[in-house]
């Protein structure tokens, strides 16, 4: 599915950037760009907005101190989404959080199980029930697809703690772990425009759901914030209800190849394990790509294609899972944020490979404006 765009400027109607946007028009009319004005990055042919002001010194988040918590009594259940450990994306990020808990908190007993393609709801319920009946607590359900099963199973095991990533179930023993995907994806959109030579970028979503539309919405807003000339290709691999779109690299390759044929030269995917096909298409065609969830440049399974990965929109599922396990071990869930956003360090971007080093000051400027509320990134997709 190709979605028509040209929604320039609408998403910033309520944003306190009127002065910046006015300057953008002046820069365009005068033929100047960031490179001409001594900016920190090569604006290329596509950028029409001026660089944002740099963030104040000392505004970056400090790295967390080691956590002094003993979680050795926890028996952790990890119910993976489709693709499981080794998907180099969403599931691996959740696994990394548990692995860190093993290394730093003393967790030793972990049970892992993975969803299969087009499995029934009963299969998901059985997975959670088996873990709960075996005494595992907390049980972490990785992905919104588990929401109905958690809602059904959690009341039957009131003494078992459950966490649901990307979903909300209103029960006393269920903790939602939610993210501001649109904020991190905004920065991916900025990076895509700065790295595009054709002023033409693309988005590939795995499954057409409200969650993945948040990635799409943020990416679109970020791209259009820095350019009123950019063209954006947008496709989904499968419709809502068909989760195979998160584990079909061949389909990801085909959709991406079509976008590249249409002129897109930087592609951002939010497609789970299907993203490998996006990277393969980019490599074959001499295009660039942006990863998702994990720092995909560092994923061993991505070594053959990592040279095309300019950055990844990092969704810190690992941070959320680790912080959740710390909170459970302390018996204090109140320390968790309502959403893991840019301010909480829950989303962001990677710099591995050095391909965006020249625009990091620009990305940090936009990031600070989002944190400060000067840019409000909508999670809703405008058609």
Automatic annotation (TrEMBL):
One of its GO terms (cellular component) is plasma membrane. It comes from the Bacteria. Residues 32-68 are annotated as: Disordered. The keyword Signal applies. Residues 1-18 form the signal peptide. Gene3D superfamilies: 3.40.50.2300. Its main location: membrane. It is found in: Cell membrane. The keyword Signal applies. It is a lipid-anchor. Keywords: Cell membrane, Lipoprotein, Membrane, Signal. Residues 80-376 form the ABC transporter substrate-binding protein PnrA-like domain. PANTHER family: ABC TRANSPORTER GUANOSINE-BINDING PROTEIN NUPN, TRANSCRIPTIONAL ACTIVATOR PROTEIN MED. Belongs to the BMP lipoprotein family. This is Nucleoside-binding protein.
């Amino acid at each position: 599915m190709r979605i028509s765009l040209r929604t320039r400027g609408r998403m910033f109607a309520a944003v306190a950037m009127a002065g910046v946007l006015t300057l953008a028009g002046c820069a365009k009319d005068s033929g100047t760009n960031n490179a001409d004005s001594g900016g920190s990055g090569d604006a290329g042919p596509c950028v029409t907005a001026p660089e944002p002001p740099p963030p104040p010194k000392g505004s970056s988040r400090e790295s967390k101190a080691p956590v002094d918590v003993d979680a050795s009594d926890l028996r952790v259940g990890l119910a993976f989404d489709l693709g499981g450990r080794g998907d180099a994306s969403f599931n691996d990020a959740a696994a990394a959080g548990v692995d860190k808990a093993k290394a730093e908190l003393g967790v030793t007993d972990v049970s892992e199980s993975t969803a299969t393609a087009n499995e029934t709801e009963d299969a998901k319920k059985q997975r959670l029930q088996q873990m709960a009946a075996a005494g595992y607590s907390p049980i972490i359900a990785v992905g919104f697809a588990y929401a109905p099963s958690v809602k059904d199973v959690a009341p039957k095991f009131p003494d078992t703690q459950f966490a649901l990533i990307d979903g909300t179930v209103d029960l006393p023993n269920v903790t939602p772990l939610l993210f501001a995907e649109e904020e991190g994806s905004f920065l991916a959109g900025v990076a895509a425009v700065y790295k595009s030579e054709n002023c033409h970028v693309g988005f590939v979503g795995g499954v057409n759901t409200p969650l993945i539309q948040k990635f799409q919405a943020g990416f679109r807003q970020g791209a259009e914030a820095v350019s009123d000339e950019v063209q954006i290709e947008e496709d989904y691999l499968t419709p809502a209800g068909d989760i195979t779109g998160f584990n079909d690299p061949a389909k990801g390759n085909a959709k991406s190849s079509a976008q590249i044929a249409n002129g897109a030269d930087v592609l951002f995917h939010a497609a789970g394990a299907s993203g490998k096909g996006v990277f393969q298409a980019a490599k074959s065609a001499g295009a660039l790509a942006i990863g998702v969830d994990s720092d995909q440049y560092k994923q061993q399974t991505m070594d053959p294609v990592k040279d095309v990965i300019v950055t990844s929109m990092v969704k810190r599922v690992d941070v959320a899972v680790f912080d959740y396990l710390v909170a459970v071990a302390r018996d204090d869930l109140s320390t968790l944020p309502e959403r893991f956003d840019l301010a909480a360090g829950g989303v962001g971007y990677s710099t591995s490979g050095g391909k965006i080093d020249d625009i990091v000051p620009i990305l940090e400027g936009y990031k600070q404006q989002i944190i400060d509320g000067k840019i409000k990134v909508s999670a809703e997709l405008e058609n």
